[in-house]
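Reviewer 2 asked us to include a model.

Predict the structure of this chain.
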Amino acid sequence: MSSIILEARDIRYRYPRGMEAICGISFHIRKKEKIALVGPNGAGKSTLLTMFNGMIRPDSGILLFDNSPVQYDTASLRMLRKRVGFVLQNPDRQIIAPTVYQDVAFGPVNLGYSPVEIKEAVTRALRQVGLEGFERRTPHQLSGGEKKRVAIAGVLAMNPDVLVFDEPTSGLDPSGSEDIMELLDELNHDGKTIIISTHDVELAYPWADRAILMTDGKILHEDIPEVAFGNLHSVRMAHLSLPTLLELHME
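Predicted model (structure tokens):
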């Protein structure tokens, strides 16, 4: 029984009329791992993340979810998106309903849950993100951190196995960022596989089980953070700086 939940085999992707965004990448992610894709803007991180739930289809190569090649017909994609939840960088682009309850219920409603199942799913998801009692609130009146939590709850309501976050702390202050990373730890503790993209080495270094350093659509290095960030050549190639903790340790 393999514990690998996501695997890429030599995947490539080129934007229409554009440059190659993903240049022959291979890797695997195990169940319940915390993975950080780290690299500068334009490294291909976000493009790669959108492949995980079928928003973008590789031009070549193969992507596997739970040991089966990803299929791109409507029914298969629907199933994949239930199991791989995607949280956008900007929650305002993800939150669409007039109340928090309706927004978090959107996925379960579309999956055809009964009213009782919808209520259970919404209640559970809001509890997981610490927003009990927010059901009737208007999303646009919430703080940035609260909006981020609503977006996460909307994904959690479908009870996915894998959670994918594009720049999870984007636009948040240090304390808000810390809260969100703690929430990701809790979700991981509950058995979720978590994949984030970030250019913040200070965030990725203490949090991730494995770091995948990327630049120009390629993987430079992947390993436990001490090793991945300890490779000075890869860190420089990825236009990153050494995490402060590691720098102190090396000195």
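Strands lie at 4-14, 20-30, 34-38, 60-65, 68-69, 84-87, 162-166, 193-198, 210-215, 218-223. The longest helix spans residues 174-189. We have added this to the supplementary material.
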